[in-house]
Amino acid sequence: MRLRNVKGSREKIEVSDIVVKEPETYKGRWKDYFGNDNPIKIEIGMGKGSFIIKQAKIHPKINFIGIEKFSSVIVRAVERAQEETEDPASGETLANLCFLRFDAVDIQNIFDKDEVAGIYLNFSDPWPKERHAKRRLTSREFLKRYENMLERNGVIEFKTDNTDLFAFSLA
């Protein structure tokens, strides 16, 4: 996905109710944030939010958290969520969906042990240069982080169209 600077993206994110500010304050308490005991699934690198918004609409008994690093991208997800889910009468969006803006390298500061039921990694940046291998969302370093936050039977769903990233991930 090509990144373009979106003027005012940080300001739009700051005033959006669907974006959680200071998500580290909810570590170990995401069920309190959502107000229920439903399972939590996250998408790391959600892009413009199409997948996670659709999942939240289809599965109201699951809480979804979309994670994106760049303001200029997450603002598009915020706009899409408002367009696709907002109830015109009340102005409320889906209660089982929120977005976080942070670098996934710090994910262990956001989720506690056994707090997440599933992780989606959809068409992540392949970081093709070997020196960038540790940045891949399927690297050993990231898998260790996921292992701690996933429930006992938690699942990682990985999709890619990059054969080199696929081979790396299997290894």
What is the topological layout?
Blueprint: H1 9-15, H2 30-34, E1 40-44, H3 50-58, E2 63-68, H4 71-85, E3 97-101, E4 116-122, H5 140-149, E5 150-159, H6 163-170
Parallel strand pairs: 1-2, 1-4, 2-3, 4-5
Helix pairs in contact: 1-4
Strand content: 15-25%
Instruction: Estimate percent helicity.
Output: 25-40%
Radius of gyration: 16 Å
Most strands sheet? 5 strands, parallel
Give the termini distance in whole angstroms: 26 Å
Q: Uncertain regions: pLDDT < 50 for 5+ in a row?
A: none
Find the structural class using helix and strand composition: alpha/beta
Output the helix-strand order: HHEHEHEEHEH
Q: Which sequence of strands runs across the widest sheet?
A: 3-2-1-4-5
Spell out the key features of this protein:
alpha/beta; 6 helices; 5 strands; 19% strand; globular
Concise overview:
This protein is an alpha/beta fold and 171 residues long. The protein has helices spanning 9-15, 30-34, 50-58, 71-85, 140-149, 163-170; strands at 40-44, 63-68, 97-101, 116-122, 150-159.
What would your notes on this structure say?
- With 171 residues, the chain is of the alpha/beta class.
- Helices cover 32% and strands 19% of the residues.
- The chain has helices at residues 9-15, 30-34, 50-58, 71-85, 140-149, 163-170; strands at 40-44, 63-68, 97-101, 116-122, 150-159.
- Helix 4 links the parallel strand 2 (63-68) and strand 3.
- The longest helix is centred in the middle third of the chain and has 15 residues, at 71-85.
